[in-house]
Hints:
Radius of gyration of chain B: 18 Å
Radius of gyration of chain A: 31 Å
Order of helices and strands of chain A: HEEEEHHHHEEEEHHEEEEHHEEHEEE
Helix content of chain B: 40-55%
Helix content of chain A: 25-40%
Number of strands of chain B: 4
Number of helices of chain A: 10
Oligomer: heterodimer
Number of helices of chain B: 7
Distance between the termini of chain B: 33 Å
Mean pLDDT of chain B: 79
Distance between the termini of chain A: 62 Å
Largest sheet of chain A: 4 strands, antiparallel
Largest sheet of chain B: 4 strands, antiparallel
Low-confidence stretches of chain A: none
Structural class of chain A: alpha+beta
Mean pLDDT of chain A: 86
Low-confidence stretches of chain B: 158-204
Amino acid sequence: MDENRRNMLMKFPCLIPQNADFTEYDGYIQILDEEYRMNIKLPKDGKLKDTRLTCDWKLEQILKKYDKIVKQRLNQCENLSAFLEELGSIAEKQLCFQEQMQPTIQRNNCAQLISELENIGWEKVVSVNADFQSFQIKFVDLKQRQHVMQIKLHSQHPRQAPTIIVDLPVKFDIVWTASSTLLDVFNQFVHNVDLYQDLWNNLNELDRKTWILEPDNPTFSATNRRIAISANASIQITVDPKHPSSLPDIKFLGSNQATNPLRENMTSNLHLWDENEGLLHNLSSLLEVTFPSPSNSKKEDFSADCGICYSYRLGMEIPEEVCNDSRCAQPFHQTCLIEWLRGLPSYRQSFQTIFGECPYCSTPITVKMSIRK
Amino acid sequence: MQRNLRMKKELQMFVQSPPHGVSCWTNDEDNMTQLTAQIIGGEGTPYEGGIFKLEIQIPDRYPFEPPKVNFMTPIYHPNIDSGGRICLDTLKMPPKGAWKPCLNVSTVLTSIQLLMAEPNPEDPLMTEIANEFQYNKSMYLQTAREWTKKHAMDDVVQVTKSSSPESKSPESKGLCSVTDKTKDLKRTHPPQPLDDMTNKKVRN
């Protein structure tokens, strides 16, 4: 024990024992040419593995990725001084690595970026990260929708184009030359956002006035909506972002009894589609339905739980299979129904279709195994 | 995944609308796979007045597989053996059984309650009891009643004891006679299962 204490004093003279039991040290540890503040609390039994280490943010930043290794060393080392030496060498390695990887940002580069951000307007800058290499910039459109663009500068900036992450329905490619500025990128973003105003106006109307079963919180890039029609029927539409008023791709979900009349209505009413009208209006007249809306119904009425797992959401899945017997009309998750039917001795499969019986009413039921996106 | 989603809902349902004469709970809040249940013996059955304790184990593949249910309280019944195992089609997988995921712990317990009231001697687990049930029903009823009194009425007896100390002696006398009768029973029935059960009861 005394040996250990002497070792600590010799090797880490700047770490001062805080009590007579030598269970707490406070002070500085030197790594390369810098000193970092550190506090060490040993448990009463002196076992290293339960030691509490606190250090200043700089050292914490350096050791951030090495959490596991540090814990492992704590378990392996015989005494505190041996562990601190290990800790020092881990930090040293990381520091050397950082120096190689990150060429220091040139000052004029920073000044340039600041002036470019100023041109965009500081009120539009949502966040700037610590290394000043990525930014989030927002744009509020006419309908008060807030669009955020994330810009990550290339290490060869400005010779190489930055990486841009946006929430738009169509892939956003920027035009970038060596003389381009962040303002150019922002203007291109604004231009793109303007292109899809019509799409979002239409989709927002649906979001407001109908029950959207999927997606839960639609992003700006989502062009699909699953709209509830009745307790056991819904439609899934996919809108063309460039032509939001034209007839979207429509899929009918639910029991045949419920969806067949809708299909027939659609075929006979196709001529009624008027591109000058909104999507909601057109869909209602096409299918001859009034969509249940949040003003006159509850969402629970349309999001019936799966009869097997008793829940609505199973991971990303919602109950899509419905028993065709209208008296039963029990919904199931595809995964649940397939798993049940597969386990039965009467299990039959032909190509991608599984044949079986509804676990509730024993009416024959078929499931098409679709490959999920 | 399905199991946990479902058990959460099922336990909620037990709290909100428990089936008649049945209660069910988890032994440990974090473990939804080990349940304990109580079934109150139905009126007009030889199990009337008794409270029967059951243990339920929810398998990993639940609800694609049935729950495993066992009686902890000894019961004299053609379809329930000395180890508490229950012969009931809804507790077995098809084609032999009739388990379906539309059933749940609550419906299973209700059908056990029904089985207690209506034994099925065609598919017995205890042949002797089944024979007795078919050909000497009064004997069956008597023994079943005695077993109920002996094993399933502990709580009930205790309550009367503590509430009215004067009635203590006749009560305990009654109990004694029951034990005597079961001793007689031991001779006619294989002794081993009975011992088994008495041991189990002591442990509980």
